[in-house]
Amino acid sequence: MNNPTVLGLAASLREGSVNRKLLNVAAVQLKELGIEVDVFDLPSASIPVYNEDVLQTQIPAGVADLKARILKASAVLIVTPEYNYGVPGVLKNVIDWCSRPPPTNPFKGKLTAHIGATPGGGGTLQAQHQLRGILSMGVQAYVLPGAAFGLSHADKAFDASGALTDEVGKKNLTAFLSRFAEELKAW
């Protein structure tokens, strides 16, 4: 595959989100591995709550843009927080919008991977487990097998410039992204 690309999406709307910081770090590392990264700015997309009535009249501009960029990308990297032991509503909403109507689902057969960051100790593993099911069974994406990366205590893991300073986190993220890049280049 020539010039593989990844669409990166952080499922957080908060400006100072540790997940948005993690996506930015991941994008830099992927570029160092020869992968181009297209970071989707979810807050700016202003994607409304999914409503079948709206879908019947028009696809919101932010949804149309995201779907087109997913289709264009070789793979998708989703960076998710964990809310109440699951994926945030905004992420589920985005996936629901993108997968409708089913013939236009850009996730179908697309290589995907997921990571996440949290100030807590759980590393977003519950959200990632739930996301894996949504992606693989719900929208029929191909999820990077047996791989997950969760950054615990992320509120202390970045410096003021957004650089990842947690050494174990950096090492584990690098290993995860290297595996993702290998899979993508073989895809």
Lay out the secondary structure.
Elements: E1 5-10, H1 18-32, E2 36-40, H2 42-45, H3 52-57, H4 61-72, E3 75-79, H5 89-98, E4 111-117, H6 125-138, E5 142-143, E6 149-151, H7 167-186
Parallel strand pairs: 1-2, 1-3, 3-4, 4-5, 4-6
Helical coverage, percent range? 40-55%
CATH class: Alpha Beta
- Write down the Rg: 16 Å
Quaternary: single chain
Main beta sheet, described?
A: 6 strands, parallel
Name of the CATH architecture: 3-Layer(aba) Sandwich
Distance between the termini: 7 Å
Descriptive report:
- This protein has 187 residues and is α/β, with parallel strands linked by helices.
- The protein has a single domain (5-186), classed as Flavodoxin domain (Rossmann fold), CATH 3.40.50.
- The chain has helices spanning 18-32, 42-45, 52-57, 61-72, 89-98, 125-138, 167-186; strands spanning 5-10, 36-40, 75-79, 111-117, 142-143, 149-151.
- The N and C termini lie close together (7 Å).
In short:
With 187 residues, the protein is of the alpha/beta class. The protein has one domain (5-186): 3-Layer(aba) Sandwich (Rossmann fold).
